Amino acid sequence: MTNSLYFTEEHEMFRQTVRRFVETEINPHVEKWEENRTFPAHDLFKKAGDLGLLGITYPEEYGGMGLDYWYQVVMLEEVGRADCAGVPMALAVQTDMATPALAEYGTPAQKEKFLTPAISGDAVFAIAVSEPDAGSDVAAIRTRAVADGDDYIINGSKMWITSGTQADYLTLLARTSGEYGFKGMSLIIVPTDTPGFSVSRKLEKLGNHSSDTAILTFEDVRVPQANRIGAEGMGFILQMRQFQKERLAGALMSVSGMERIIRMTIDYTRQRQTFGKPLIDNQWIHFKITELLTEVEALRQLAYHCTRMLVAGMDLTKEVSMAKLKAGRLAREVADTCLQFHGGMGYVEEYPMARYFRDARLLSIGGGADEIMMGIIAKYEDILPGR
Amino acid sequence: MKVVVCIKQTPSTTAVLTVDDSGHVSWDDPGGKPNILNPWDEYSIEEGVRLKENHGASDVIALTVGPDESKNALKTCLAMGCTQAELVTDPSFEGSDTVGTARILAAAINNIGDVDIALFGKQAIDGDTGLTPVQTARKLGWTPLTFVSAIKEIGDGQITVERLVDDGKETVTASLPVVINVVKEINEPRYPSLMGIRKANRANIPELGAADLSIDGGVGSAASKVDWSHIYAIPPREGSCEIIEADSVEEQARLLADKLFEEKVI
């Protein structure tokens, strides 16, 4: 029996499977992967694919499970509990960032060719949208895909690409016409073994060390136009829709990550004795922890509300932007407060606290910065300047 | 070949146990499920599924004696790959000791019929006796093969296994049918896939009661030979810390050595 309003016994059984996957296939290797600045994505994704973790909501004819998004919520919550944020992020790129548009708007042939290996874990996907001069400002991208017969010839550069050094396929956003701004972009699947594609550099980051992040270069990369998802010029719209799942995934994973670190802090402050009593017995400590838990619970409920909207087919752009904004802000507060309560132990690498402090900072930047979320919310509330 | 895997639902390994003054034990696991499939049984389930995959076993039937809630543990077995599951439940079974449980299991195995191998985990993490497999073998009149770390060969009505013994391993051959209890060295249990979980939750798990079985001997608390006269929580271990002060490290080491002799630690 489960007391949850949202999860059945079957969800909870699935939760146990994902939790065990994290405990046996991810956590024991985190130290090494963080040190290596990468993890073996092909090996891990294959194991995840065998368990059915990579195609939970995708159609059964392509190897998916055809289930509603609540199963995906379970998966994201549990991988979000891992001892690092880098590997969960790469998993979410595979399931919620690089493949939703392909699954929703791809042709049967595209899905057979690209989605099937993404679901089975035989292929690693990356989402290639950001560029050196265009991160959250997606409309400013410059990478071009010029039609040449039945092909596109792609030139340009992409930056901050998660799994960029290991990906077999990129879901690439490129300009396919000369129109300015958000018009004239298309989403194109690019196999990374295509001549002209190269990884310029693996980036050294503040956190998320276990995940490889790269700058990618495209020099006359020729791919069939048949690899384009949806109609030409629809790329920006499709990517904006795809972003909603990315932001929801980010919020959901952040909740369980914050919960993990707060629980760890409770344990630590219970054991740590200062002035003859456990640290947590100080009212400032236990009151502050209750505040954090309350905020995390509120964020969880907002994320669940977004999930209900998603499952109902509603537009969740405003609400999910709020969830993503709150997640980024709250993760920073949780990281800072919990590190403070750990004292010196929070500042050394021997303890997981320092890693969380580094990793959590990305949430306010990746997948659309806090300021972009505020812009979206302001637009939906009709309070932008000049209105 | 027909295989039965006898399993038990037990408190979760992370459950917090409480024993009240009357000896009543309760448990909860706020962060997870309070009850799980006995972890030792995961190895026997995995071996059963491998008998299906590698030795052509036609049926791998998970069997348990317990309350209705034990169906959750049986669902885990189905999700891991068992072909069927069966719950044996009856109010008269309550309070059975291991002999009583063995009588019920033996009757249920006979009721299934034509079983070649009955697999067990090494022990259950709640009672921790490890007695049920051999007692079931005795009730069935089958050969017990205990502490099995590998199934080497099955054919011509015989089975050859490797047993983990105190000084190493030994290989033994027995005629089927047999009762086997396995050790964790035998395999690496798979975890249920999402597909397996979906199938398991749609499966019909039949229930059998005392009236459906021909149980040889008494069961339940009245027939139990084991009397749990008193159950109490282990008192928390008390520790203390003493810091040896001295002017030099050498002096500290000498005082420490004296102290360790004094306390008969060395």
Largest beta sheet of chain B, briefly? Answer: 9 strands, mixed
Number of domains of chain A: 3
Largest interface: A-B, 19 and 16 residues
Estimate the strand proportion of chain B. 25-35%
Question: Mean pLDDT of chain A, nearest integer?
Answer: 95
Task: List low-pLDDT spans of chain A.
Answer: none
The named CATH superfamily of the largest domain in chain A: Butyryl-CoA Dehydrogenase, subunit A, domain 3
* Oligomeric state as shown: heterodimer
Number of strands of chain A: 10
Straight-line N-to-C gap of chain B:
57 Å
Structural class of chain B: alpha/beta
Helical content band of chain A? 40-55%
CATH class assignment of the largest domain in chain B: Alpha Beta
Q: Report the radius of gyration of chain B as a whole number of Å.
A: 23 Å
Number of domains of chain B: 2
Return the CATH architecture of the largest domain in chain A. Answer: Up-down Bundle
List the helices and strands and how they pair.
The complex is a heterodimer of chains A (387) and B (266).
Chain A: H1 9-26, H2 30-36, H3 41-50, H4 69-79, H5 86-97, H6 100-105, H7 108-120, E1 125-128, E2 144-148, E3 151-162, E4 169-175, E5 185-191, E6 197-202, E7 213-224, E8 228-229, H8 235-271, E9 273-274, E10 277-278, H9 283-311, H10 317-342, H11 352-360, H12 370-380
Helix pairs in contact in A: 1-4, 4-8, 5-8, 8-9, 8-10, 9-10, 10-11, 10-12
Chain B: E1 2-6, E2 9-11, E3 16-19, E4 25-28, E5 35-37, H1 39-55, E6 59-65, H2 71-80, E7 84-88, H3 98-112, E8 117-120, H4 132-140, E9 143-155, E10 158-165, E11 168-175, E12 178-182, H5 194-202, E13 207-208, H6 249-262
Parallel strand pairs in B: 1-6, 1-8, 6-7, 7-13, 8-12, 9-12
Antiparallel strand pairs in B: 2-5, 3-4, 9-10, 10-11
Helix pairs in contact in B: 2-5, 3-4
